[in-house]
Design a protein that fits this description.
- This protein has 140 residues and is α+β, with helices and mostly antiparallel strands.
- The protein has one domain: Alpha-Beta Complex (50s Ribosomal Protein L17, Chain: A).
- Helix content is 44%, strand content 14%.
- It contains five helices and three strands.
- It has a three-stranded antiparallel beta sheet.
- The longest helix is centred in the middle third of the chain and has 19 residues.
- It is globular, with a radius of gyration of 18 Å.
- The chain starts with 13 loop residues before the first helix and ends in a 15-residue tail after the last helix.
Length: 140
């Protein structure tokens, strides 16, 4: 019996589940929105909001705790530098879940998990459409 056991298992063992959530969290902070199943979005939401709350106070301890979850330093610094400052005056509720459709293959309910106050995402900053940097001319 699973009395008083919190959290969903998603048919995975604990290490696979934690790796899945780390990957989803990293993608979420990189793009500032993610489409996934409704159940995964509901499990992901408290994790994301706790990380944003830690990032609001800029110190080395919180950076190290966030880097335990987010494995990309670029994404972690994006969280500290551009996402967290938007929510300094907000006491909580940084994300919203919007139900969208049913997935074609298995009929799972899909939802979009996004930030309430969206800005420019990290992937938009690194877009390939940006002109390349000009190189200094060689003197011959």
């Amino acid at each position: 019996m699973r009395h008083r056991v919190a959290g969903r298992q998603f048919g995975r063992d604990s290490s696979h589940r934690s790796a899945m959530f780390r990957s989803l969290i990293t993608s979420f902070f990189e793009h500032e929105r993610i489409e996934t199943t409704t159940m995964k979005a509901k499990e992901l939401r408290p994790m994301v909001e706790k990380l944003i709350t830690k990032a609001r106070e800029k110190n080395v301890h919180h950076l190290r705790e966030i880097l335990k979850v987010i494995r990309s330093k670029d994404v972690a610094f994006h969280l500290f530098d551009s996402i967290a400052p938007r929510f300094v005056s907000r006491p909580g509720g940084y994300t919203r879940i919007v139900k969208t459709r049913r997935r074609i293959g298995d009929g799972a309910e899909m939802a979009i998990l996004e930030l309430v106050e969206r800005g420019e995402s990290l992937s938009a900053k690194r877009s390939p459409s940006a002109p390349p940097k000009e190189k200094a001319e060689d003197k011959t």
